[in-house]
Amino acid sequence: MGPVAEISFDQRSDRHRLDLRGLSRQSESECQAGRAVDRGDASFHRLGRACCRRTRELNLERVSPNGQPLSIDGLGSNADVVNPDDFIERYPRLWHMAEEGSWPLIEEHGLLSTTALLDLFEIGGERRFPLESAHRRRSETIEHPVYGSAVIRDQKPMNEITLGKCLLDMTAREWFENLNRRVFFWPSEERLERMLAAGAYKTRSHTVLTIDTLALFGEHLGEIALSTINSGATFPMGAAPRGSDTFRRLPDFPWDERLSTHRHEPAAELAVDYSVPRVVGMVADVTRRKAKPKAR
Prior knowledge:
By secondary structure, this protein is an alpha+beta fold.
């Protein structure tokens, strides 16, 4: 697949947005109920109590990716797949690690996948290919006359040689494009801490968003996919196989099977297609974080 055709952010995000009938949406003014607090070297953005409480009272008519309603008591007749209620109960919060200083752009445009960010910044042609369709060995800064600058993060945890050995039914280019069109979240703070402590990132500060899972499901239920592996990393001593089946929609994810074999961590990642435009209304808090020092 060639570079994605250039298209404005608003046009592209509307094409991906799921209409959840019966969803009580927050108004733009309500989303601004958050307040910023400064604690030492960390900046916090927190939703007001009323805003958080209203988020938890969403009356959601669940809709599957094919447009069919999802039963509140389960997904169709298959009791082995993940029920959104079960997932939200187990993972009431999600975490997203972003480049330090990226909150103003996120606040204005939402959380963008690499593909969405390249669309917004109108990056195409030869400049786009190495950012979207190949391995990024280092972070890259892109510029736009209206939106300023943004950093596309590196993919240092990925090794191209190891990746080639563990891909099942995709080329490396297809895999990178698959990753780059998603927005990623860690379902556990333990996973976040591991990423913060990874060799390439442990000396740096990062902007970390804590997300209300119910609010995210309310906006993007049909665009959510789960993975059982860290899809953005390959480890020389045993990289997990990966391919077109790595990311599974909720109706296809083997929740009960994973609970029986990996009870501590049935899902390793959650990803949303393309972008999360109204993420501000889902944010529980925004912090500036570094890896925790190792205990002596």
